Amino acid sequence: MKKILILFAFIGQLLYAQSPSYTSLVGKYDRDIVNGDGVDYPNKFPPCPLGNGANSEFIISGTTFKGYDEAQGYNGMGEVSYYFKSSSGQCPSGGKANLTKPIIVLDGFDPLDSRSGAKIYGKYLKYTSNINGVITDKFLGDKLRQQVNGFDVVILNFPQYKRDGSVTQTYTCPVSSSFICSLIGYTGGTRTVTTGPVETIDGGADYIERNAMVLVELIQRTNQTLVANGSTEKITIIGPSMGGLISRYALAYMEKNNIPHNCKTWLSFDSPHLGANIAMGSQWWVDFYSSRDDNAKDVNDNQLGSKAARQLLLYHRLSYNETTPTSAIKDGIDFRGTFVNNMENNGLPGSYGFPTLPRKVCLINGAINGSLQKVINSEVEQSRTIQACEKAFSSKVNLSLGQRKLAAFVCFASGPFGFLGLTACQVAGEPTALSKTTVNFQPSYGNTCVVFDGYFLNSNNQKKAGSYANSVSLDIAPGGYYSTQAEIAKNGTGGTTDALYALNYIGKSKITFLDVIDNHCFIPTKSSLAYKWNNKSNLGDFGEDLSSKALVCNGDIPFDTYFALNRNQEHVSLNEESVTSKQGIIKINTVGLENGIYSLQIFKNGSLIETQQVVIVH
User: Fold this and answer.
1) Confidence class of residue 595 from pLDDT cuts 50, 70 and 90?
2) What torsion, rounded to 10 degrees, do the Cα atoms 321, 471, 371, 385 define?
């Protein structure tokens, strides 16, 4: 009888199946305070109410994307915050009925969703103005909203969310007897079976293509709202960092599939079109301590090991090679290679995955004149240039007094007549050290050097790295910089390691950092410009001076115009030079000028500080 009942349980007719569901995890954690600056951004920069008791909305993409390591395609989720135009800066009533001139700003790479829409508006759209020696904070969002014929600022964030990837199927009972149906699990004549995983998805570090489908959904909804509100305005899209790749993919996808996007201007802001760089030595440092420290493990798993990081990084420790730089290959999957192929085969023929209909503008943080990275210590830029293979920082885990006493016993016990059988009980002759490391920058022009040298007790782990044969080290190349080493030191200093539990019972091991150079090149200038976008085999030296080249006219970049300075700046940082203010810090009148290259003089407090080459394309 049992065998018959089991058979009956599987031959009922399928009544209906429920698709996977998606639930936002926003509100279950304090994303603006965690690893933040303590500012309560949601209260200081609240998005405009939408008239339904909420000040943001969550959207699900209408198109799924199947990840490289996934068995099926899934939808993505986005969180949308609105800041409607207002001369006073105050939110008008009426919710999305006010949306008539949108400018969509995307979030970039954001593991664990540390930034809400309010934080993006209040922190990452902020810049410092220096007018006649008076330094003030200004907010690009306010400026866009409050000007005559202002914009509605729409911020798209990619939150953490729960994806119920299970499939719920409901079957009818295969027999007419209600008694038998109840015995075999068909309550009320039906039986529901659920199979599959329930997962937490880190939207800010998920596949770029899936997040692009979320933007496609937002663009379509925004265009519907514009029609409903009687507006004939077009959409402007700003894509900072990874957001530039998400928006590039989304717009090109819509053009390829004949979906109107109504986008007038697309601004790529220091986006890694040719890839990003995190110093290999720093990657190895994080990996070395990931089994010994929770913070290092978090960075290793959720940031460097995320899907998006594996898509973005030119060098990745997962594909470690001492001579030839390689991107991330894990479990036989080439994440970056697959992503580049997807991106370049997206869009219209010959576009290499770039949209063709909007005006394409590029704003970069890297030096255009080939200037290499300057040393930054404690956020202060020095006059000298970082050298290839130079030390980036060193660290040491010191033993407490109680630990040293135990170590002395271990040394005695592991001697010629000892019983522990240990070969050593200290690091390289240092009786006070449990562990020590040295991290160096990557080499240049085909050379190889040690980028990580780490000891834990007497165990040594050393890693070398190579470089492109015809290029300066990516760590010191012109580009928007990121202070990875400073972040490691800030989050690690005074921290503890739980690696040697016996020693921790006597006192925690404290980590100290020495000789820290804060920064390295994160987004090379050539990458943010998408230099040689249609012929990357001729990419050349990442340290090349591009200031005298007619990049737009010669078709070396896919953009209609660009803005760059002769110095390297922090990645996705705004400043007086890159934001045209009411005070006219940067003034250029293109009316009546023919297409071509012109000299732009930049004044600050009445003094000439820089001369740039500007491309004018009408």
Assistant:
1) very low
2) 50
Pairing assessment for the beta strands 359-367 and 561-565 based on DSSP bridges: parallel
Nearest-CA neighbor of 340 among 322, 314, 318? Answer: 314
Q: Is the dihedral of CA 544, 549, 551, 554 positive or negative?
A: negative
In DSSP notation, 249-266 reads HHHHHHHHTT----EEEE
- Going by C-alpha positions, the residue among 421, 488, 464 that lies closest to residue 323 is 464
Strand boundaries in 415-506, DSSP class E: 433-440, 449-456, 459-465, 479-482, 496-497
Task: Tell me the per-residue pLDDT of 449-483, one tens digit each, with 9 for 90 and over.
Answer: 999 999 887 778 999 999 889 999 999 999 999 99
Position 145, amino acid: R
**128 by DSSP, 3-state: which?**
strand
> Which helix (H) or strand (E) is 6 found in, with range?
helix 2-9
Query: Which contiguous run of DSSP H or E holds residue 503?
Result: helix 501-504
Q: Which has the closest alpha carbon to 207: 239, 237, 242, 240?
A: 242
**How far is the C-alpha of 254 from the C-alpha of 276, rounded, in Å?**
25
Tokens representing 470?
A: 């015809």
Type of residue numbered 554: N
And the tokens for 536? 């990357």
What are phi and psi for residue 6, nearest 5 degrees? -65, -40
Which stretch of 159-168, 306-315, 504-513 has the lowest confidence by average pLDDT?
504-513
CA-CA distance, 118 to 48, in Å (whole number)? 10
73: its two tokens: 């395609």
Q: Can you give the residue ranges of every domain in the chain?
A: 2-14+168-194, 31-158+206-269, 374-520
Question: pTM for the full model?
Answer: 0.83
Please write the tens of the pLDDT for every residue from 94-141.
999 999 999 999 999 999 898 899 999 998 888 877 677 777 888 889
